[in-house]
Amino acid sequence: MLLTGEYAVLDGAKALGLPTKFGQKLVVKRTTSSDLIWESLDMKGRPWFESTISLFDFSAVTTTDQKISDYLQKLLKNAVRLNSEFLSQWNGFKIETQLEFPLDWGLGSSSTLIYLVSEWAEVNPLLLYFKTEDGSGYDVACAFADGPVEYINSPDEVSYTEVDFNPKFKDNLFFVHMGKKQNSSQGIKDYIKAVKNKNTFVKTITSITEDIRTTKELSDFEKLLQKHEDTVSSHTGFVKVKDSHFADYPGTVKSLGAWGGDFILATSKDGIDHVKGYFNSKGYNTILSYKELIL
């Protein structure tokens, strides 16, 4: 979860990422085949993607989804570019991945996969990410972190630092799934077209991130969340999620990551039953507490 820094992290702002307890597993088994047999399972163990992949050029011999196969081809080719010994022996493998969360939650199915493949290929996960994706890379840093991470991706540096973020008011923080997975690549394109006054935007978001990490009181935290929402909206023209969906909600509501999908953060002094009652009445049925979701 990107608590602070959405969009601005692409231009060098300091962001605060929260790794989740739910991730993805990868199992690799050597086979007598001359291909890669790939099977992706959902959290209940049901296949949602299957492919036979040629070791010659990583193209799909068979596939249930060509778009995913094209992505895997790109990912595996980039892993080989970073480590020429990876998959160089023409040995076949059976690869099985399994998600620990529903497919539509948007908790990083691609970023965790990049990290897992980087471990298999023995390459730097962020280098593999930047060869494969066009985002900030914060989610890959979260994939191998043991707790909250401050992340910077600027022309001068890419850095990540595990930080002590364990707010005493975490029982007042709730994550609500919006019922659709946001397309991060499209969100980035929309941001690039819309953003105004980048330098001011980046400095303001960095300042908010630093303040949020050390804030002690829920009321101050809520003010900073609101300032973050106002800042993103004023520099992009994007509509705040509270204005568009939850104008009558008594607490603070903040988008997480690309606006328009995946999860939002809601604060409440009244407990999870009150929060569930409100969002259930609006048709949103997946509400998780901070302790349930965040590592």
The largest sheet, given as strand count, sense and whether it forms a barrel, is: 5 strands, mixed
Q: What is the overall silhouette?
A: globular
Q: What assembly state would you assign to the polypeptide chains in this entry?
A: single chain
- Residues in β-strands, percent: 15-25%
Number of strands: 13
Describe what you observe in this structure.
The chain is of the alpha+beta class. The protein is 37% helix and 23% strand. It has helices spanning 66-82, 109-121, 125-132, 138-143, 184-194, 198-214, 218-236, 241-245, 272-281, 290-293; strands spanning 2-4, 15-17, 24-31, 35-41, 47-54, 60-63, 92-99, 149-153, 158-162, 173-177, 253-255, 263-267, 287-289. Helix 1 (66-82) runs parallel beside helix 2, helix 1 (66-82) packs across helix 3 and helix 2 packs across helix 3 (125-132). The relative contact order is 0.17.
Summarize, please.
The protein is α+β, with helices and mostly antiparallel strands.
Reconstruct the topology from this structure:
Elements: E1 2-4, E2 15-17, E3 24-31, E4 35-41, E5 47-54, E6 60-63, H1 66-82, E7 92-99, H2 109-121, H3 125-132, H4 138-143, E8 149-153, E9 158-162, E10 173-177, H5 184-194, H6 198-214, H7 218-236, H8 241-245, E11 253-255, E12 263-267, H9 272-281, E13 287-289, H10 290-293
Parallel strand pairs: 4-7
Antiparallel strand pairs: 1-2, 2-8, 3-7, 4-5, 5-6, 8-9, 10-12, 10-13, 11-12
Looking at this protein, list some descriptive labels.
four-stranded antiparallel sheet; five-stranded mixed sheet; 10 helices; 295 residues; alpha+beta
